[in-house]
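User: Design a sequence. Structure:
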C-alpha cells in the first residue's frame, strides 16, 4: 500500500501576520510568504499551513472571517494566493489553509442579515442566556437591539454558527471546493470539536475542553467530517484535513480520525506534557495505542513557545530542552507540525506593554491574562532594527520585537554549525532519510532514572530529562545530538540519535 504524503510529513505553520511583510505596512502578507518559500524548502519541511488570510475586521487576528472566499487586502489578493500556491508546488511544498467553521465574523453578510432579523437560524440566537462563558473571558452571550442574545464562544465579534441548519453544511462544502479548486492540498480545521452544541444549551459546571460536554465534542460533528472526507477524496493528489481537537481523552481524539473522517488531528497532549520522561512516555503510549496516524506538535500560535515553557531561571536551559524535545519528537512515528520561529529558538516575548497588546484574550480578561501576542511577535530575518528584516526599510512591525531578536535572526544563525537553525536543518535532513529506513512501530528500551530510550528499527533515540548525566545505550555511531555529549554520557536536557555504522552511512545528516 502506498504511504500517504502526510503520514510522515513535516508541516510548518505560518502565522501570516508575523512571517514576512513584502508590502511595507508592518504586517506580514502572502507576497512575503512567497518570497521566503526557498528558505522553507532549504529548512526541509514538506508542507506549509497558512493561518487565515480572508477578509476580516481582525477582531481575533483573522479568525473572525467576513468572507470565506477571498483575501483581505491587508494580506494581498487572490492572485497573490494563487501565485504562492503555484510557487510552493514548484518547490515541492504542499499548502494547507485554515478553515474556520465554528464561527464567522460579526461582519459576515449572514450575521449582518441576522441583526436585521433575517435568517437568524444560521446562528444561535436566544431570548434568554445560560451560564456559558467565552473562552476568551466574560459571558458567551451578547444582546442585540431587539433584546435577543447571540452565542459567541470566543470574541463578541465571532458569532457561533448553528450547524443544525442545513444551509451551514452546504456553505462550508462549497467553501472547501473553492479552495480545493485553487490547488490547496488540505485544510487545518479551527475548533474542530466545536460546531454543534447540545440540544437545549444546558448550563455547565465545567466548560474546559472535555471529551463529554454540552459545549464541545457533540456526536453530530462526526457526520460533518464524513461529508468533508468524501469531498476531499473526490479530488486528485491526496488532499487532506487535520483537526484542531482539544479533548482530555485519547479515545475521544481517535473518533475524529476514523477511516471515513479526518486524516489527522493535533495531539495537544504532547504539547501539554511537562518536562518529564514519565509524562512523555505516557503521551506516546496513549497516542500510538489510540490513533492510526500520530501527529506531534510543540508550539503554535495559541500557546506559549516551548522554549519558554520548558525554561527555568536560566534561559539556556529552556533552549537546550527545546532542542532535545524537537529531536525526540522527530524520532516518533507520524508527522510533526512546527511553528514559525521555533527553528530560530525564539522564546515567548513576555514584556510587551499593555499598549502594544492586541489579543482579545487580554482585553476580555481585563488584563488578567496576557493573551497570545507573545508567541506571535514577527520573526527576525536580519540583525538590523527596527524590524530585523521583517518589513522593508524602517517600518515598525505590528507587534514590537525585542532587541534580543537580532542575535536569533536567520542572518545571524545561518552558517553557524552550533545554531538552532542549522540544528533544525540537520535534524530534518536526517529524518527525511530515516523515513524509508525505519518502521512505523516503536520499541521501548531500558532507561536509567530521568531518561527515556526507545528504538525504531536501526534508530535509537535517547533523551535525558534528569539532573545527572546518564550512560548512552549501546550504539556504533552518534547520528545527531541536540547538544554536546560527554564521551559515553548523555548530559541533562539533551537528546541524541544513535545507529549502527552501516545504517548511519545511508543517512546524509
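Assistant: Done.
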Amino acid at each position: 500500500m502506498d504511504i500517504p504524503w502526510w503520514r510522515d510529513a513535516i508541516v510548518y505553520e505560518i502565522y501570516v501576520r508575523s512571517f514576512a511583510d513584502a508590502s511595507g505596512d508592518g504586517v506580514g502578507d502572502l507576497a512575503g510568504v512567497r518570497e521566503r518559500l526557498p528558505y522553507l524548502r532549504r529548512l526541509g519541511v514538506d508542507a506549509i499551513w497558512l493561518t487565515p488570510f480572508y477578509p476580516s475586521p481582525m477582531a481575533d487576528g483573522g479568525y473572525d472571517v467576513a468572507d470565506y472566499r477571498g483575501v483581505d487586502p491587508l494580506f494581498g489578493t487572490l492572485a497573490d494566493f494563487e501565485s504562492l500556491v503555484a510557487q510552493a508546488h514548484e518547490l515541492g511544498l504542499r499548502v494547507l489553509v485554515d478553515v474556520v467553521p465554528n464561527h464567522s465574523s460579526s461582519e459576515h453578510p449572514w450575521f449582518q442579515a441576522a441583526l436585521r432579523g433575517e435568517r437568524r437560524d444560521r446562528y444561535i440566537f436566544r431570548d434568554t442566556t445560560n451560564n456559558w462563558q467565552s473562552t476568551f473571558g466574560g459571558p458567551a452571550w451578547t444582546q442585540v437591539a431587539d433584546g435577543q442574545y447571540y452565542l459567541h464562544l470566543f470574541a463578541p465579534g465571532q458569532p457561533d454558527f448553528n450547524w443544525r441548519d442545513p444551509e451551514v453544511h452546504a456553505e462550508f462544502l462549497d467553501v472547501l471546493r473553492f479552495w480545493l479548486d485553487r490547488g490547496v492540498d488540505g485544510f487545518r480545521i479551527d475548533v474542530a470539536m466545536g460546531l454543534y452544541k447540545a440540544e437545549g444549551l444546558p448550563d455547565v459546571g465545567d466548560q474546559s475542553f472535555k471529551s463529554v460536554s454540552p459545549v464541545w465534542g457533540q456526536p453530530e460533528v462526526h457526520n460533518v467530517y464524513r461529508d468533508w472526507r468524501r469531498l476531499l477524496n473526490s479530488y486528485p493528489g491526496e488532499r487532506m484535513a487535520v483537526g484542531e481537537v482539544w479533548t482530555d481523552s485519547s479515545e475521544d481524539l481517535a473518533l475524529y480520525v476514523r477511516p471515513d473522517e479526518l486524516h489527522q488531528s493535533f495531539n495537544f497532549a504532547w504539547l501539554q506534557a511537562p518536562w518529564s520522561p514519565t509524562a512523555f512516555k505516557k503521551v506516546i503510549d496513549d497516542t500510538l495505542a489510540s490513533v492510526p496516524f500520530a501527529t506531534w506538535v510543540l508550539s503554535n500560535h495559541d500557546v506559549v513557545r516551548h522554549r519558554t515553557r520548558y525554561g527555568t531561571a536560566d534561559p539556556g536551559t529552556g533552549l537546550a530542552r527545546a532542542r532535545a524535545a524537537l529531536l525526540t519528537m522527530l524520532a516518533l512515528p507520524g508527522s510533526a507540525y512546527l511553528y514559525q520561529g521555533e527553528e530560530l529558538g525564539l522564546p515567548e516575548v513576555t514584556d510587551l506593554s499593555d499598549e502594544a497588546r492586541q489579543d482579545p484574550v487580554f482585553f476580555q480578561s481585563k488584563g488578567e491574562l496576557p493573551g497570545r501576542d507573545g508567541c506571535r511577535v514577527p520573526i527576525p530575518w536580519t540583525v538590523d532594527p527596527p524590524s530585523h528584516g521583517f518589513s522593508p526599510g524602517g517600518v515598525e512591525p505590528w507587534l514590537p520585537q525585542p532587541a534580543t531578536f537580532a542575535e536569533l535572526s536567520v542572518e545571524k544563525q545561518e552558517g553557524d554549525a552550533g545554531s538552532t537553525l542549522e540544528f533544525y536543518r540537520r535534524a530534518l535532513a536526517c529524518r527525511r532519510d530515516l523515513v524509508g529506513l525505519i518502521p512505523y512501530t516503536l520499541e521501548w528500551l531500558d532507561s536509567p532514572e530521568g531518561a527515556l530510550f526507545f528504538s525504531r528499527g536501526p534508530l535509537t533515540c535517547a533523551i535525558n530529562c534528569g539532573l545527572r548525566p546518564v550512560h548512552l545505550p549501546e550504539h556504533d555511531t552518534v547520528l545527531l545530538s541536540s547538544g554536546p555529549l560527554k564521551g559515553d554520557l548523555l548530559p541533562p536536557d539533551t537528546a541524541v540519535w544513535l545507529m549502527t555504522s552501516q545504517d548511519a552511512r545511508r543517512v546524509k545528516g
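The two ends are 28 Å apart (CA to CA). The first strand starts at residue 10 and ends at 14.
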